[in-house]
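can u do me a favor
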């Protein structure tokens, strides 16, 4: 285990493949992480890095077939999640782990009122009466900052703005007091003002409810402001993991450094051309035996092309999967 003690959720060596006509695509390759109560873990990486697939796999949300969990362990409060029945998984998803999807317009059912969509999981998982569940739904809308919450329970999703729909999704995810909240790029499609409001809501809820939060995003700048730890993913692997301070102050993987280099610098004396990461992520038709970032890496050497590095500790609370050692600026000599 690479993280702290007594995690709410602990994922070890998770592997997920998708069956295609051309063979299996290895989308998640040995992912290990954990989350504790009251902690926020930021998961970053470009599109196709495996962030969303990892979280949907552990929640049992991937269609099977074509998706299949090929290995690993998923422990929730010390109990294995893999192998549970469909009924048990529905109970876990609704009552213990909340999920906020990226696009609220496609996640909310357009033919049902917002109130109905919040009330139903409350009644199903908490066993409340319709009246009590509706009162709780109004409280939840108020909690996420929707004005005139009781009246708006009878509105349909199209009557809400994009930011308000995202707040509704958060309210649904929180409806049964989950211990863990997974947010899959919930602010990507929102303007910066609404994004800031959503982030403020998440901060407040984290303090009030003590949830563990997993926040999936492309935006390293956003992660810097809200996360305790950062997990950087590439080609279905965790290539670096550490505290926010360590990742931003002393990144140890070339991919993390490249991502940080793409953040605009607004404090310099003049505007600078944005950096980019040359090349494309690999199509994982087989599990990588060499470093998957090697074709795009400026520090690549022979070992990178023949051996895929495992995660190794570089400092307290900081580990990396790389054959280059930025502390000495030379090739890592360990195993």
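np, heres the sequence
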């Amino acid at each position: 285990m690479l993280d702290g003690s007594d995690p709410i959720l602990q994922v070890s060596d998770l592997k997920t493949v998708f069956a295609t006509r051309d063979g299996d695509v290895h989308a998640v390759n040995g992912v290990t992480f954990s989350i504790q109560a009251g902690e926020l873990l930021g998961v970053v990486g470009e599109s196709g890095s495996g962030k969303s697939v990892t979280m949907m796999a552990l929640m049992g949300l991937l269609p099977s077939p074509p998706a299949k969990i090929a290995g690993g362990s998923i422990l929730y409060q010390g109990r294995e999640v893999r192998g549970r029945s469909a009924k048990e998984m529905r109970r876990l998803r609704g009552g213990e782990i909340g999920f906020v999807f990226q696009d609220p317009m496609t996640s909310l059912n357009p033919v049902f009122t917002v109130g109905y969509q919040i009330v139903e999981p409350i009644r199903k998982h908490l066993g409340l009466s319709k009246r009590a569940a509706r009162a709780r739904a109004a409280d939840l809308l108020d909690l996420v900052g929707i004005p005139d919450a009781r009246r708006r329970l009878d509105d349909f999703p199209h009557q809400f703005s994009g930011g308000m729909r995202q707040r509704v999704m958060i309210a649904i995810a929180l409806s049964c007091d989950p211990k863990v909240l997974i947010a899959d790029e919930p602010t990507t499609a929102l303007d910066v003002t609404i994004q800031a409001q959503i982030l403020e809501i998440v901060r407040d809820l984290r303090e009030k409810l003590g949830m563990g939060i997993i926040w999936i995003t492309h935006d390293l700048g956003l992660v810097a402001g809200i996360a305790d730890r950062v997990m950087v993913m590439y080609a279905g692997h965790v290539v670096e993991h550490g505290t926010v301070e360590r990742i931003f102050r002393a990144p140890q993987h070339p991919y993390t450094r490249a991502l940080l280099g793409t953040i605009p610098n607004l404090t310099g004396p003049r505007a600078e051309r944005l950096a980019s990461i040359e090349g494309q992520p690999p199509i994982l038709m087989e599990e990588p035996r060499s470093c998957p970032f090697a074709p795009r890496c400026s520090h690549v050497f022979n070992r990178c092309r023949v051996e895929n590095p495992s995660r190794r500790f570089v400092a307290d609370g900081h580990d990396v999967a790389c054959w280059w050692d930025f502390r000495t600026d030379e090739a890592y000599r360990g195993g």
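The first helix runs from residue 51 to 58. hope that helps!!
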